[in-house]
Design a protein that fits this description.
The complex is a heterodimer of chains A (318) and B (258).
Chain A (H helix, E strand, L loop, with lengths): L2 H20 L2 H24 L8 H19 L3 H23 L4 H21 L1 H4 L5 E2 L4 E3 L2 E3 L1 H23 L3 H11 L1 H6 L4 H27 L1 E2 L6 H14 L6 H9 L2 H4 L7 H15 L5 H20 L1
Antiparallel strand pairs in A: 1-4, 2-3
Helix pairs in contact in A: 1-15, 2-7, 2-10, 2-11, 2-12, 3-4, 3-5, 3-10, 4-10, 11-12, 11-14
Chain B lengths: L1 E10 L2 E11 L4 E5 L6 H9 L6 E6 L2 E2 L5 H7 L1 E4 L11 H7 L18 H20 L15 H14 L4 E5 L7 H18 L2 E5 L3 H7 L2 E6 L2 E6 L1 H5 L2 H8 L9
Parallel strand pairs in B: 3-8, 3-9, 6-7, 7-8
Antiparallel strand pairs in B: 1-2, 1-4, 4-5, 9-10
Helix pairs in contact in B: 3-5, 6-7
Classes of the chains: A mainly alpha (318), B alpha/beta (258).
């Protein structure tokens, strides 16, 4: 494990141990939600690291979650199969949408994803026989893999935190491989990447599809944990929250989603008394971070670990 | 090796190139010169796939590459460099050059999360060898871990060439390699081009303002003016051509340059 990973990983573990030992259901719930948000944001981060921004990722979470929920509640399909179908549906939709819009430049791409999120939400309201309309679908069966059922706060805590750490480690590993470097090249200098034999549009399409699937899986986790879905679980606010978490955590780091989600997930709860001002507060935090730490909160940690490294070196030479 | 046949390009009503034909044979160094706005860069962009032509064809090794995407054309063995040293600014020199080899290191992204193995790991090894060889040939070893945006401009231009070489081209198209360099640096760059040509068995096509450089290294010069080829030949023939002197060089003023 590299130096720059150790500190965030240790922080998460410390937090986990603390919350578990405290046995506080509310804190555990916050941590589970932060872990699930990390999965949601990770999908978005994959897209962002090829130089694209999507405001429509809530739609991918919605599609996966709804397909999974409809299959389990109305057709009695097992969770694993239903989740796979949800992911497959999201992948197909992301591919179809992505191959059309990947040619669009900058802000037009963002606008289409924005419209797509709203379209998906309205489509869910439009077919109440299947989707439950505005009241959504309740009593979604719990996450079960074979005979093992993940139910209750304790199991969810362990499962979701482990899952989000493994995902974060995989993302971090991915960006050190040659495939990951193609993504980074496209982000850093698309013209040069294209003239070096990297097809910018294929890389961006791949990131859009795989990122959509990751966020889609986050949506499935969320609906299985809460045991409820409604169009309002996946509205534009979610998309905006995901983007805010990503930017605050750090767009160009594999640890950005985790840090952003850990920092922003508990905020609305802390500010529960002033919920209508929640997005105002997000906005202020976003502006402050962009002014003080444009690389995101993660830069504080990497700064810390590099200064720790420097200290060690000094000690050695002394 | 490279043949441009009757290429025209119109931007709206403006004809940037009209009916241009030229060819580059294996092992040659061909220089395209011409005044600003003559259509040099447009021709360049059409060959590399950045712009589609309005009419005409481009052949590379007898294969029609007209309208292919730049990333496809590179894989056939035709690489380019950029005029203003376009690099990956936050990456080391080594990483910049390594990224030029990425297209040869395609592997399933999920499989790639596993350590390199088998045929892929030998591809990876040869990519690293090529990067090391390029750094040695271009004398970039002392800058190995320096970030690209912290390099002096002349070195940035070298790294730009190095990235192009890392794609393993048969022909390298250079867009104004001497732009922004002083005359000493530009002479060094000329020697560098000759060195990499010999070392990698390259063919070179360059677009250049700096006539001294073109005269020094080119075996053939093509003069473009107002979207048309007005002269083709050896440096001596072309630079003494009455039409060339009249339309571009302005009566021998180029002798003073460089």
């Amino acid at each position: 494990m590299k130096k720059n990973m150790v500190i965030p990983a240790a922080l998460v573990l410390v937090a986990l141990v603390y919350y578990v030992s405290a046995g506080n259901v509310f804190y555990a719930h916050m941590l589970i939600m932060a872990a699930i948000n990390t999965v949601l944001v990770s999908g978005l981060s994959l897209v962002a690291r090829t130089g694209r921004l999507s405001f429509g990722h809530s739609a991918f979470a919605a599609i996966s979650a709804y397909v999974c929920a409809i299959l389990t509640t109305q057709y009695g399909v097992s969770w694993v199969l239903a989740a796979l179908c949800g992911l497959a549906a999201t992948t197909v939709v992301a591919y179809l949408l992505g191959s059309v819009i990947v040619k669009l430049r900058g802000v037009y791409f963002v606008l289409v994803t924005f419209a797509f999120a709203e379209f998906t939400r309205l489509a869910l309201l439009e077919f109440p026989e299947t989707t439950g309309g505005a009241s959504g679908l309740a009593e979604i069966p719990p996450l079960g893999i074979g005979g093992f059922v993940i139910e209750g706060v304790d199991r969810w805590l362990v499962f979701s935190v482990l899952f989000c750490i493994v995902l974060t480690l995989l993302m971090s590993r991915f960006f050190k491989t040659t495939s990951g470097k193609e993504y980074l090249s496209v982000n850093d200098n698309p013209d040069l990447a294209e003239s070096s034999g990297i097809s910018v549009s294929s890389v961006q399409l791949a990131s859009f599809v795989i990122g959509g699937a990751i966020t889609g899986f986050g949506g499935i986790l969320m609906s299985s944990y809460i045991e409820f879905v409604s169009p309002e679980s996946f509205n534009l606010h979610l998309s905006i929250t995901l983007v805010t978490m990503l930017v605050i955590g750090g767009v160009n780091s594999s640890w950005g989603p985790l840090i952003g989600a850990l920092f922003l997930t508990p905020l609305p709860e802390i500010l529960r008394g002033a919920q209508e001002y929640q997005h105002l507060f997000y906005g202020i935090v976003l502006v402050l971070i962009l002014m003080i730490r444009p690389q995101g909160l993660v830069s504080i940690f990497s700064g810390l670990s590099s200064s720790v490294g420097a200290l060690k070196k000094e000690k050695k030479s002394a | 090796m490279l043949e441009i046949v009757n290429i025209s390009k119109n931007f709206g009503g403006l004809a940037a190139l009209s009916d241009i034909s030229l060819s580059v044979a294996k092992g040659e160094t061909v220089g395209i010169i011409g005044p600003n706005g003559a259509g040099k860069t447009t021709a360049f962009n059409i060959v590399t796939g950045t712009l589609p032509p309005s009419a005409g064809k481009v052949f590379f090794n007898k294969k029609d590459i007209t309208g292919l995407k730049p990333s496809r054309i590179v894989k056939l063995g035709l690489a380019r460099t950029f005029q203003n040293a376009s690099l990956y600014p936050d990456c080391s020199v080594h990483e910049n050059i390594f990224r030029g080899t990425l297209w040869k290191l395609k592997r399933n992204m999920f499989l790639n999360l596993m350590p390199p193995a088998g045929e892929y790991s030998s591809r990876l090894d040869s990519a690293h060898q090529l990067v090391a060889d390029i750094m040695e040939t271009l004398e970039l070893e002392s800058y190995r871990d320096v970030l690209a945006n912290e390099l002096p401009y002349g070195i940035q231009k070298k790294v730009g060439v190095a990235i192009g070489l890392a794609t393993s081209p048969e022909i390298l198209l250079m867009d104004e390699p001497a732009a922004g360099l002083n005359s000493k640096e530009s002479r060094e760059f000329g020697r560098l081009i000759n060195r990499i040509k010999a070392h990698y068995g390259l063919t070179v096509l360059l677009v250049e303002h700096h006539i001294a450089l073109v005269r020094e290294i080119s075996s053939k010069i093509i003069v473009i003016s107002q979207g048309k080829v007005i002269a083709t030949g050896t440096p001596e023939q072309v630079l003494n051509d009455a039409r060339v002197i009249e339309s571009y060089l302005g009566g021998g003023g180029w002798h003073a340059e460089g």
